[in-house]
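Each field is set out underneath.
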Amino acid sequence: MNDLQNQLELISPSEYLARELKSTVKHEYVGGVVYAMSGARNRHNLIATNIIGVLFGLLRGHRCRVYNSDTKVRIQLPTHSRFYYPDAQVVCQGNPESDVYQDSPSLVVEVLSTSTRRVDSGEKREGYLTIPSLGLYLMVEQEQPIVVAYRRTEEGFVREIFEGREAVIPIPELKLALPLAEIYGRVEFGPDPEDVEEEG
């Protein structure tokens, strides 16, 4: 075990869940280690809210439900467990309402930013794609209307790219489609504030 690992306080999933109920800051959990989540910028929140609103409307009367970023996803891997807070998820086989996480999302959405891109497209993507119920993982760009999708097929997950406000993401498993025009409704594109700060 290296020095960094010695400094980390490893806790169990049950300890993490108990602490998270009392915490004023959200944390994600990976194999015993907790990571505090930073606040998001307005553009990120607008896009995430658009997605939640569109999915809520499309799923009205449907057995599946959409959840926002206050609901965790639990990923159970052979060697450890993880808990993430995706920006949106659609669940058709839900956990009990008393739970604070879901185990079986059909759709997971993360809105990318400079600070989260590496984790969202690497560690989280790898974790999400192990969930047996997952049919589609969407990574939504903030700086331009582009969505990268990982869709489950008989041969495994396939990467797709949807670009431009006129593009539409088909989700046949849920019998709906997600237009980029609505994902990016009222979003004004310009330089990413994080990139501007880094250049300065």
Summary: Residues 41-71+85-187 form a domain with the tt1808, chain A fold (CATH 3.90.1570.10). The longest helix spans residues 42-58. Confidence is low (pLDDT under 50) at residues 1-7. The helical segments are 3-7, 13-22, 42-58, 117-121, 123-128, 180-183, 193-199.
